[in-house]
Design brief:
The complex is a heterodimer of chains A (220) and B (348).
Chain A (H helix, E strand, L loop, with lengths): L3 E5 L9 H10 L9 E5 L7 E5 L8 H5 L5 E3 L5 E3 L9 H5 L33 H8 L11 H5 L5 E5 H15 L23 H18 L1
Antiparallel strand pairs in A: 1-6, 2-3, 4-5
Chain B lengths: L1 H30 L3 H7 L6 H9 L3 E3 L12 H34 L13 E3 L3 H26 L4 H5 L1 H33 L7 H8 L17 H25 L7 H29 L6 H7 L1 E3 H7 L1 H13 L11 H6 L4
Antiparallel strand pairs in B: 2-3
Helix pairs in contact in B: 4-10, 5-7, 7-9, 9-10, 12-13
The chains are: A alpha+beta (220), B mainly alpha (348).
Chain lengths: 220, 348
């Protein structure tokens, strides 16, 4: 089966928050719940960079590992989902999550957390009927053969969603055709590379594609 | 009409041709990117400083309305490892080990019986108020310990046995009981600690008591006042580790004061370690108070202990009570079980 992944191309993200809005609209999440967020580093400086983050559907998901109720499960597509009927709102998944994905409606007394809510990769969750599923988890676009709405609506196609291999192939291709070595995440000092065009023969492009592919695989 | 048609066709041709020319000129720029130009516009180099920002959240803004999160929560994995790799198995070893040690001790040494026959004369040891406080605290402690253990290890047992629906209700009830009874336990523990502070101040003979192993091996009965060294140790464990448990518990119980994720992680780790220590030691307390010592449970059940028991386990207290009685022969502890008298009978 496929291994579903999100990938946000920071080079393309323009911090429009379209993904955030699309997600909110597709899933009609509760007041105060925003499954996707856009983080901007160095806002307003020349080095400004933005990236859209939500649940990354980890292979070795920390939320699953620490949940005292074992309400999490992984679908055949590698999507991490959870059962809100079993969730007790303890907050452990939030403590463990690297991406701040789990959120809790706080409407109970003394700030007691409600049932956890997070990105489902638009794959819904366990429920008796489609109506109940939508009510609890939001859209199940995967069952309709569609990708998550955040990625589908991304205006610059910075946010990619889909099978990990396809997504990383698209990204790798972009990096190669951008024609510079630090297009991905490799720490190359710009100043020391004033002009790399001389080296960009066809063979060197191929060679670079290979090394970048290696680089992407190595650095995640 | 015909002239107009020709003109418009010509226009289309011109537009098409100009597009062709334009694309020829644009082609090198659009198709094969100019690397040096690209580098000039590219996202900044990812250096150590960038990763520090990703980790610490400095100079970063987040579009989530109330977010105080950094981009990547690095401490989450640390907490996960501490909880799942150390606290969870460590707690199992601590609790299981304690039970095993007590079982072996019971089998090898057996109950600490009274050396002499009961005198039939009773001494007031715990007033009704003290017993009520003790059993309230004990009940809350047991419920919190059982629910806490269920939160840590229950998922490995009950869901497989009873299925999803039972497990969902069980774990929800567990969380509610743990969260709502926790503050009550905190208040009770503080009250009990305050009430019994004066009885548990360490004395010189307590160290001697420990040196002699508390008389756990039969035949030895080191000096002990109203509270012996072991009871005082349990008191001070409750006053230290117990305080860690209730403070960390309250921090987690009321997540409305802006506690950060990192604070919650550390609090949770401390809460787990401290409460597992407390539960392990409580096994010892429960053993000594029930199966381990003849006549100990009577004191907390009825409030009175036999004079033989008092002489054997708390000789200094016994002596003091007897001296007080000699000084005031009117008082008879067996018929006047009130708090004022109880205070009078005590060394402090």
């Amino acid at each position: 089966m496929a291994q579903m992944k999100f990938l946000c191309d920071a080079e393309r993200c323009i911090e429009c928050n379209g993904c955030v809005t699309a997600c909110k609209n597709a899933n009609e999440t509760e007041w105060g719940i925003q499954r996707r967020r856009v983080v901007t580093l160095d806002d307003g400086k020349p080095s400004e960079v933005s990236i859209s983050v939500a649940c990354m559907h980890c292979d070795d998901a920390p939320c699953m590992a620490v949940c005292p109720t074992e309400c999490f499960y992984k679908t055949d597509d590698g999507i991490v989902l959870h059962d809100k009927d079993i969730c007790i709102g303890c907050g452990y998944c939030l403590y463990a999550c690297p991406f701040g994905a789990p959120q809790f409606p706080q409407q109970g007394a003394f700030g007691e957390r409600g049932k956890m809510d997070k990105c489902t990769f638009c794959a819904g969750g366990p429920a008796e009927s489609p109506e109940e599923e939508y009510e609890k988890y939001g859209a199940n676009r995967i069952s309709e053969g569609k990708l998550p709405l955040c990625a589908e609506m991304c205006s610059t196609k910075a946010l990619l969603a889909g099978d990990a291999e396809t997504v990383s192939d698209i990204f790798r291709q972009r990096v190669v055709y951008r024609g510079h070595e630090d297009g991905a995440w490799s720490p190359v000092d710009k100043a020391s590379h004033p002009d790399t065009s001389a080296n960009l023969t066809t063979s060197s492009v191929t060679h670079q594609a290979d090394s970048l592919a290696y680089d992407a695989a190595r650095k995640g | 009409m015909r002239a107009h048609f020709t003109t418009s066709r010509l226009l289309v041709v011109i537009m098409f041709l100009s597009l062709m020319v334009a694309s020829l000129w644009l082609a090198p720029h659009a198709m094969a990117a100019d690397p040096s130009a690209e580098i000039g516009q590219a996202v900044g180099t990812v250096d150590a400083d960038t990763w520090r920002q990703v980790k610490d959240g400095d100079n970063s803004i987040d579009s989530r309305h109330d977010s105080n999160y950094n981009l990547i929560n690095q401490s989450g994995e640390t907490w996960r490892q501490i909880r799942n790799r150390w606290i969870s198995p460590g707690g199992l070893i601590a609790l299981g080990g304690m039970l095993a040690v007590l079982a072996i001790f019971y089998l090898l040494v057996g109950r600490n019986d009274l050396d002499h026959p009961r005198s039939g004369k009773l001494m007031l040891r715990w007033t009704a108020l003290e017993r009520a406080m003790h059993w309230t605290l004990a009940t809350l402690f047991l419920i919190l310990a059982i629910t806490g253990i269920n939160l840590l290890w229950g998922k490995f047992v009950f869901r497989n046995i009873f299925g999803d629906v039972f497990w969902a209700n069980m774990i929800m009830a567990t969380k509610l009981a743990h969260n709502y009874l926790g503050p009550l336990f905190s208040i009770m523990l503080i009250l009990v600690l305050a009430k019994w502070l004066s009885l548990n101040l360490p004395k010189k003979h307590d160290f001697e008591w420990f040196r002699q192993g508390g008389g756990m091996i039969k035949g030895k009965h080191p000096d002990a006042g109203f509270a012996n060294g072991g009871e005082k140790a349990w008191y001070w464990i409750l006053a230290s580790v117990g305080l860690v448990v209730i403070v960390s518990g309250l921090v987690m119980d009321f997540p409305i004061f802006g506690q950060t994720r990192d604070v919650m992680q550390w609090t949770n780790a401390f809460h787990g370690i401290a409460s597992l220590i407390l539960i392990a030691v409580s096994f010892g307390h429960i053993y000594i108070g029930t199966a381990g010592t003849e006549g100990a449970l009577e004191g907390m059940k009825t409030g009175y202990v036999d004079e033989t028991w008092a002489k054997q386990h708390h000789n200094l207290w016994y002596d003091e009570v007897k001296q007080a009685e000699a000084a005031d022969p009117q008082s008879d502890p067996a018929t006047a079980p009130d708090d004022a008298l109880a205070r009078q009978q005590r060394p402090n």
